[in-house]
Amino acid sequence: MRAEALLLAVPSVLLVATLGAVPLARRFGVGAGYPLAVLTAGAGVLLLTLLGDALEDPITVAGEWLPTLGAQWSLRLDALGLVFALVVTFVGAVVLAYSPRYLHGGETDPSRYYGALAGFAAAMTLLVLAGDALVLYVGWEITTLASYLLIASVRAGRRAATRALLITFVGGLALLAAILLAGAWLNTVALTELTDPARWVGAPLMPFLVLLVVAAAVKSVQVPFHVWLPSAMVAPTPVSAYLHAAAMVTAGLYLLLRFAEPIGTRPAVGAAVAALGAVTALFAAAAAVRRRDMKELLAFSTISQLGFMMALVGIGTEKAITGAVVYFLAHATYKSALFLCAGAYDHAVGTRALPELAGSARRLPLTTGAMVLACLSMAGLPPALGYVGKEAALKGVLHPPDALRFAVLVCIVVAQALTVAYSVRLAAAPFRHGARARPDERRPSEVPEWPMALWPAVLSVATVWLGTVTAAFTPLRLTPLTDAATEVAVGAAPGTSLALWHGVTPAFLVSLGIFGAGGVLFVLWRIRGWWRLLPDEVGSRAVDAFGGLLRSCGRPVERVLVSPVPATHLTIVFLVSSVVVWVALLAFSAAVGPEGEAAPRWVVSVLIAAAAVAVAVTQNWLTAFATLAAVGFLVSAWYVLLGAPQLAAVQLVVDGLTVILALFVLRHLPRRYVDVRWPRRVWAAGVALAGGVTFAGLSLFQRNASLPPASESYLAEARSSSTGNVVTEILSHYRALDTLGETAVIAVAAIGVAAVLRMRREGS
After folding, report:
1. CA 416/CA 653 separation, integer angstroms
2. Is 131 helix (H, G, I), strand (E, B) or coil?
3. Going by C-beta distance under 8 Å and a sequence separation of 6 or more, which residues neighbour residue 1?
4. DSSP 78-96
5. By the 8 A CB rule, do 71 and 132 touch?
6. What three-state secondary structure class fits 672?
7. For 210-258, what is each residue's pLDDT tens digit?
């Protein structure tokens, strides 16, 4: 019970941080990042206390959520989820602690920024700890929304935020479709069931996996869905470091790792994932080489490294999966450190352009040192964790050899050589001599370096320290955690341990080739124009053109939907309802028509119809109100004839109050209706006739169809309840959702009234 309580406390702490972010920001301003960082780090510490229990046996906490779908709100902590959750919490804490100095004096609203960032941390933690696919989907979509809010938190980011939302929304739909498909076939959405290949015997596993791959490719920015990430770099740098390097974009990787075992049973899907990842790694590395802006370079580098990890998941062997897990840890630390360094340079030097950083090493020694260590890991040089992860990944690609692995290996070797080249270029930029950028208006003595440089230094030291202790210190080795995560993903642990030195192996020789090729590319950098032959960013114009096409197609619909004329909206409702109802009625064979109606009822029905026609054709408001009241009174008479006097009494009261309220505005109305031309009258009459006939037919169908009476189920439920009162059961169970809908309508109407009053006040 202690482990379950601690697991439940992890998202609870992050939820407290999310709810408290706005009040803290209003109280402390940008300084609210410090207490939020403490809370987020506290969640990470709780996870560390569960490390031993999670490695022995997964910890699960569950409760009823959607019983009809077999869905539970369940949290499940195993080694794979623990790896991702530790990154989310500890990197999130570092980013939150870095944010106050970055936001100081900026245009970003601290309340909105911290609320969205803390909410993202909670949602991403929920995603990786979910034991149920629907819970995972909730976390998945909240991360998308948080990303949109954070990108749009700056004025220049609204277009990029819209692009990111539209593209990632496609991935969310694919994931939802996969979950619904799995629920329909397997009658469960528990992840332990969905990831078991034995449960998919006789079920459509291939469509399910294809939908998962699409969702993961969109979230993890694989070609051609990558175009939203470079434009998202207009977001604040801490957002780029956290969401777009260490956490959000790795959600797709986590999804495929979670389903790596079912993917392994379909070689075609694995081959497609490996090919997609290899092409993405190569293309994005080539695009990164061309970049002069530090954040743009890091954005394409992130796309490339994610492609590298996705290719490893596609290969699917134990060694390849281990390489993906270790490289994920390395990438999260060094890439977030590099983004935070970019923010520090931007604040101190006033630019992120690499040529203009020349000479800044002396001015910013701590920042430059942190960037050099992070670039060491990004280039895959020892003793950093990036080297350990790359060696483990190369072992997975090389053994056993086949045509697919050879093609993937070629792409990865070229991509890693380009990675070495731009890593050395990035690390060398502050040491170069040349024209410097115009310094910031604040003098260096007035702006100390360490408040911003401390946190990227922490991450850079962490990536080197993790690589060192992995090889040297047995109690601190990552092997038990990474082996357990691999076993969760593919059902078997790798046979070799992580280390800095395994001897002269094929993976080591390939690494030497990568280092040599990368060094040659950097030395040849000054040969003008060779790198211009590499492919650059593609797809952005196509996405923008497609978005413009959607907007142009939506303008006619928009003109109709934003019409201030109520008749337009009523016409849409009546026509759509008529089509839907009649299609449903024609699908049944029950007779539609009156049977044995008594004469008094027919008389009252004819009078109701006549009064309704009188309301429609009269030209005077007072006459219209009088005939409308007559309609209500006649309906009450109809209820009496049907044996429902209580309902008739309610109808009389409501109808009387409605007419009285309408009379209060009578003096503000013209004496006669506005003259309407005959074509519009004919159209309105046709729509009204279609709606009236439709709902009359629906009522008659329900009266004559052989449906089980609802009263029997109401009475049975009341007998089995504690109250024994049928009215109580109807109000508390059957009418609860109806009441919720009515409350929502009232809330929306109140918001509309408030908006109108605000517009009038601003207009005056």
Report:
1. 79
2. coil
3. none
4. -HHHHHHHHHHHHHHHHHH
5. yes
6. strand
7. 999 999 999 988 888 888 888 888 888 888 888 888 788 899 999 999 9
